[in-house]
Design a protein that fits this description.
With about 400 residues, the chain is mostly helical. It is about 75% helix and about 5% strand. The protein has 17 helices and three strands. It has helices at about 25-35, 60-75, 80-90, 95-110, 115-120, 125-140, 140-195, 205-220, 220-240, 240-250, 255-280, 285-295, 295-310, 315-320, 330-340, 345-395, 395-400; strands at about 1-10, 15-25, 40-45. Helix 6 (about 125-140) runs antiparallel to helix 7 (about 140-195).
Amino acid sequence: MASFIYTARDTGSGREIRSSVEAATEQTAIAALLNRNLLVLSIQEKVGKQGKTSGGRVGLADLVMFTRQLATMIDAGLAMVQSLQALADQTNNKVMRDVIKDICARVESGDSFSEALQKHPKVFNRLYVCMVGAGEKGGLLAEILARLATYLENTARLRRKVKSAMMYPIVVTCVAIGITIFLLIKVVPVFGEIFSSFGAALPAPTQFLINVSNIVKKYIILILLAGGGGVYGWLYFIKTPVGRYFWDARRIKIPIFGHIAHKICLARFTRTFASLVRSGVPILEVLHIVSQTVGNVVMEKAIKAGALDIERGESISNSLSKHPVFPIMIIRMITAGEQTGKIDNMLERISDFLDEEIETVLSGLTALIEPILIVFLGVVVGGIVICMFLPIFKMPEIVSGRR
């Protein structure tokens, strides 16, 4: 049951009433109010009741499985309600189960499948809803769902590869920082006390390391708080419109990693564009949806500006070529697609090419990062060890200096 906020007029007294009512659908709520001699002036569903996703999240893997299985069932000739009931019974994710049951109830009460999906924006984004809506209008729902499942599977696969490539350096870097802090707090002070009994000037690297150790040991709490505050402040800054634009404009220019991030955004742009165009969504609606799913503010503004140029009569390739965020190779392939009337196929080829290039770069980067991190760990830990043992190697000089 959903909750609806309404404004109505009592036909007997003429006074205006504002309250809420529980009902399965908006039409049922209006009918119930009419039976109470209330003339509905306005009614809308409570935002907090739009779906039951507030208690948790639905992972991309669950969404892919739901889409693929639903496409198979509909293609096999099962009715929508029957398919949704079967999927609700077999899913292990409680949040997803509640969402499917709510969608099933809405479809049973007369809503279309796409209208029912709109009630759960936390689970089904605008891209998903628009493709389903286009499939319903064209009578190709099973085909569109299968295409959508393939799109989501490609997205999940690319996301997993990026995460796995980034996980190793992040873990090793954290371990290196932890080891360094442990040595500076626990090990270096012990050597410092031993060396202080020499009564002579220590080598400059050793003295510098001892001074750093004393500072870290004394202000470790403040250093950790400052580091945590800096990270929190940066994350908060990049969530603001100014900060997000600042970061998105620069992260695609970072050597190696920026190159990968740029290609990921371009692959997402071309694959989403191809899927929507092939599904029959109008081109301006396609560009508006793609701009929201591309994942980069700079590219988002470029797409929206291109949409305005297309609305004035320009071609897609000409409108996008004005923005340097789109490489010349992609512009030329889009031009060829427009000339042949197969822009969706051309965009699909571009996205496949970009995915392969991203995978190649990530594979090479993973192979290169491992020796670099080993060298990094060796330099950090080895440097500390050398600084500590340097006075022992120069013991005759220290003793003679003391005399």
